[in-house]
Amino acid sequence: MKVFIVGLGLIGASYAEGLKQAGHQVYAFNRTESIVDLAIKEGILEKDNHLNKISEADLIILGLYPKHNIEFLKNHLHLLKKGQIITDVSGTKVWMMDEIEKIIPEGITYTSHHPMAGKEVSGYHAKDSNIFKNANFVIVKGKKSQENDEIVLRNIAKDLGFGKITVTTPTKHDELIAFTSQLTHVIAVSLVHSDHLEETKRATGDSYRDLTRIAKINENMWTELFLENKQALLKKINDFEKELDDLKKLIKNDDKESIQTYLKEAKEKRKQFDED
Hints:
Layout: E1 2-6, H1 10-21, E2 25-29, H2 33-41, E3 59-62, H3 66-75, E4 85-88, H4 94-103, E5 109-110, E6 112-116, E7 136-140, H5 147-160, E8 165-168, H6 170-193, H7 206-212, H8 219-228, H9 230-252, H10 256-275
Parallel strand pairs: 1-2, 1-3, 3-4, 4-5, 7-8
Antiparallel strand pairs: 6-7
Helix pairs in contact: 3-4, 6-9
């Protein structure tokens, strides 16, 4: 299959690497042209790579920030052809998918997806197709989706080594991601900022390192994601604050039995997560 990837950041470049290894013909566009030249040199992209190759692609993968995905499509609608499938790897869906659905021509289908994988570092040089091994893969259907889109995306997930595949709606996706991804980053960043002890670095164990690993964050991307999913994220922050406040009250009141019950319930719930 001919695949055209828009943006060779961490995810786009890792897709290119993995899909090329799986036998696909991979082409790409990147705003920094030297990165495209390097990808060709490294054998990740076809030697005849060119922006016009987007017209020959069976699948177009948008790998920019949401607003830039929309801007790219608006500027290159003349290169799209009937029968193509468009998808994207963005971390929020509702607003972006609605805008994309408004502008893509008839005869072109669009189904989004979200690879639940990444690193604390970004950019082409951080690429690693192994980050997708057994990771979750979320397919997000919209108003321009067709049945064949899901088949193609499932095959892409298989080629890249993803594990569980979930199919959902844009609204449900953004609600889920607000909890499983964005809230966890909010907590990690807040935990780091709450540290006011000079000796912390010399007194940490795995707990602090594990909880704050994702605070080594791409501040530009995550600011965009937080604001684009503002309402869903604020709701999840409120839910978390309530739980934290409840536990705080139990500790303040020396309610040993209730604390033990609260901790045990969390432990059992987390065990069920691993079993699934």
